[in-house]
Amino acid sequence: MERDDCPPAGRRWVWDVWAVVPIGVFTAMTVVGRMTDTSHPRRLVLDIAVGVVSTGLMVLLPRRPVPTALGMALLVMLSPAGTPASTAATLGIALRLSQRTAIAVTAVQVVAHLAQGAWRPIADLPFLWFAALDVAVHAALLGWGLWTQARRQLLDSLLDRARRAEAEQGRRVAEARTLERTKMAREMHDVLAHRLSLLATYAGALEYRPDSSPEKLAQAAGVIRTGVHQALDELREVISVLRDTEIEEGPGGRPQPTFGDVQGLVEESRAAGTTVAYDEEVDDVTSLPPATGRTAYRIVQEGLTNARKHAAGHPVTVTVTGRPGTGLRIELTNPGSSGVPLAPGSGTGLVGLTERVQLAGGTLDHQREPGGGFRLAASLPWPT
Fold it and tell me: Among candidates 230, 316, 324, 255, which has minimal Cα distance to 286?
């Protein structure tokens, strides 16, 4: 537990040898000024002794400020030679310790100087004037010290707030980078998983139908080669033009997918051998927000990709309905599973898709049907 009479950590007093020198000079001047009083020659010895001891106590002031200041107050009661050191101690305590401690020490110093003035009065200076000057000087020292301490604390707090704001800014930048990486991973999964599942379908056809005609084998190989190039192009686009969801077109890349591309996505799956029943009942497609259209495209893309992976050869039903004011609803179902996935999956596609839909303000539900099939349903907002 930290003592009140000790300076707080990080706020240590610095009293070099040179800082004691001015106190010694003022003490010597005080002693010389009192030498004119020849009526009490023994007091000169007392003044010199008090001056030397009080100046020496300045070395202990940083370690034990309150006891040292009280000791100086006792010396002040004996001789004016202790005034410079006790005054410096009063100011130092007001600059560094708590307000309550500073007021208490200052009050003791005032009383000690009043006692000195009563015992050894100054010629041609009434005691009432001495008392008024004593109180005024110590009040000024106390006010100066407390004001300086409050100002320093205010500056320290502002500096601390600035450092915290800088650290917070760094944390926000790090979070933004993490969010961008997460977004990139989600985009890569959505784009590449769909493209690679198509390639796996054609590769599977080549593997299980080696007796096909050379023309069909060449055609399938050409589709695979084209798909690989498309996958590489899409990967480059995802890395280079990944932007916020409101950006319609990345620099140097093709436009982002929209709701109008869903039909082409379905045709692409049909060309790969998947039976897709597509039913679209959407009013006023032109008023559909671009971000909502892209999210709908990704939902259908993820659903068709999962159907090819886990239910190859089974039909897929895609239903899209909606109108402004009521929202857009997308539902994909397939009746069964082939048991062995056509291509390995990470299991994060639906997690990322759920996050994407929630960011768009919608909801996503996916579950297995009692007969072994799978159902994916999403609802997206569509303002009027």
Answer: 324
Task: Measure the CA–CA gap between 243 and 70, rounded to whole angstroms.
Answer: 70
- Cα 56 from Cα 180, distance rounded (Å): 65
Residue 137's contacts (CB-CB under 8 Å, 6 or more residues apart) are 87
DSSP states along 52-70: HHHHHHTTTTTTSHHHHHH
Instruction: Identify the H or E element spanning 36.
Output: none
Successive 10-residue mean pLDDT values, the chain, 384 residues: 45 51 76 65 78 83 85 85 85 86 88 84 81 88 88 88 83 74 68 69 68 73 72 65 44 67 87 85 86 88 82 86 91 72 57 81 85 85 86
Collect all residues with Cβ–Cβ distance below 8 Å to 37 and sequence separation of at least 6.
43
Answer yes or no: are the C-beta atoms of 276 and 314 closer than 8 Å: no
Q: How many CB atoms neighbour CB 202 within 10 A? A: 19
List the structure tokens of 219: 């055609």
Cα separation, 285 vs 258, in Å, equals: 11
Residue 371: CB atoms within 10 Å? 7
pLDDT given for residue 10 in this prediction: 39
Q: What's the helix, strand, coil split of the chain in %, to 5?
A: 65, 10, 25
Q: Which residues pair with 319 in a beta bridge?
A: 279, 331
Q: Are 196 and 229 in contact (CB under 8 A)?
A: no
Residue 50: which residues within 8 A CB-CB, separation 6 or more?
75, 78, 79, 81, 82
Q: Give me the pLDDT at residue 36, please.
A: 62
Query: What are the counts of helices (DSSP H) followed by strands (DSSP E) for the chain?
Result: 10, 5
Residues 6 or more apart in contact with residue 176 via CB below 8 angstroms: none
